[in-house]
């Protein structure tokens, strides 16, 4: 295969060859220079009429002629000439034409070009040159619905990003060189999901984030430079999922969080600066899933308990009387918590209580009176180290029906 320089009708048999072929991968053919994607001189008849997915990897000399393959998904990695051939003079086609919908470009050093981007879904990974040769580049992306940028260290997002008016999903992963999100993003009024992951140079979210009124998912993860969530997020009335994970610079959540009346899932995970939750949190009547995993303990007398709906992983327990819909309660690694409130008896829908790494609570469980407060709960799981109420020590466990005791090494 190393000696092959051209793929054409003479290689795969002319018209009618592989009529049902759907997936094609060309990998590590360093001498391959040309793939003729048509089998007739008029360029109308395609080589593989049913092709759906094409992947080109490590083919540094390969060029498409007379046009790129017409497939639903096209993946190109470490093959710069493939990208260049898509808009060279004499090439009759362009990426994204006809059936083409998804394009992934990875490990390419050449700039993108307006002729290669008529796709609905675009993913760019580990590309060193994301400059654009046309000022109308973003204006031409009228069909783009999803944009993912990953591991592009030397890039910044252009201010023209707001011209992608059809965009519904925007993801930025591991781009340490990006220092800000363009203010023009407020024009992405159809955006439904925004994910920013491991972009440590970003210091803040756009001032007009609240203009993204169609946003249903906001995920901010591993962004240590972000100091606050703007209170303007209260305008995101369609937001259903909010995840803030390992953002140590954030010290508090905005009071406007309680105005997110459509919110169903809230995850605050390992944000060491957050020590309390806003009082307005009890207004989230539709909240069904909550995870709060931080190093800071939430005080027992806080309103944090109002957050818990259906599923909770928390480091602190607050008032529970409002949690009529609660089905699962998990309390993890909370050494300061020594008791559960009596109001836990009012959680008549509670089906699972899981306690892990809370030595004070294990002693509380030893009381028969306290166990009676939990009689309505269908299953109780206790993961502990040492001997608690005579249920064993060391590694192992014991199942006594509704109570499951899991004895673990002292790792907490």
From TrEMBL:
The keyword Hydrolase does not apply. Residues 121-247 form the Disease resistance R13L4/SHOC-2-like LRR domain. Keywords: Repeat. The keyword Transmembrane helix does not apply. Signal peptide: none annotated. It holds the Pfam family LRR_14. It comes from the Eukaryota. This is Disease resistance R13L4/SHOC-2-like LRR domain-containing protein.
